[in-house]
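Q: Hi! Curious about what Tyrosinase copper-binding domain-containing protein looks like structurally. Here's the sequence.
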Amino acid sequence: MQSPCVALLSFLYLIALVSNSVLAQSKHEENHSATLKDRGCTKLLQRKEWRVLSDGEKVAYTGAVKCLMSLPAQNPALPEAKTRFDEFQALHLHLADNVHRVGQFLPWHRQYLLSYERALRNECGYQAATPYWDWSLDAYNISASPIWDPVTGFGGSGVPGTYRLPKGVNYTENLIFPESFVGCVMDGPFANYTVRLGPGLLRTNHCLTRAVDQSYTGYITYEAVAKTLRLPTFEQFRLELEGGQAAHKMHDGGHYMVGGEMSNFYSSPIDPLFFLHHANLDRIWWNWQQMLPGRLAEVSGYSTYEPPHVNITLDFELYVGSVGDSVPIREVMDIHKAPNCYTYV
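A: Let's find out. The predicted structure is below.
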């Protein structure tokens, strides 16, 4: 049996441990707050993986997207856009050739996605951050993903035979893959949504289309992500992540496995899943950036796909038109710094 003296010493030692732990935690929080303040942020919005959200949080997000689909457009320079949601699609449709297969692909989509998140929060009262879809968790059985849930997800694949592409369409010019447009999404929150833009460069009223396809999921596995994260330079990283016409990669795989509108180079943001897909790509880029301090200032690549070519720099402007603020690349490089102020968990 312990003597009273030993018991007292043990008790005092325990109190000291607890006190030190509390002080350390308090100091950590104080330092974290100071760091945020130094970077111009009062807090960081937490972007979470879709499946960790509660059912209520999931419904709140899709509800905010539907709100954006109901708000009138703000920019008369885009007459094809009738709603605020349409404006995001119209901008991407007009700029697609300028923001893909180029050095600003990742920075531009980061600012585009941030503008979308702000619209959901500021115009539709959404309280949280844009979620991301870590499709590597679903790569070996994509059809079983909770993302397709008709109540707490985005609805499923298109129903074969419920949609036909317009007659006389130039598939090559519009980068349309007919096999991806098998049918309309008939369940979920966007089942009755009337799409006004696309497919491709077309302006047609139609349903939201999908064709979920397991054959493209080899590009989005955990192994594919790990391989990309090991690449030492931004140039190697961006090329491996984005891919292109000559070689499909992670970015393409995420689009083609969903099919329908998501498979199209121009009109893919018509499917609300576009933003969760690109949030995950942004997360992967952020993870790569965090591996070495110098990567917060590392960009490379041409600013145009076709010549004449100019190399991008941190001063290159990311134009997002009426959907948000156009900023130089340097402003989006650190997501923990204002005006970004978000993180991935």
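A: A fun detail: The chain has one domain: 62-344.
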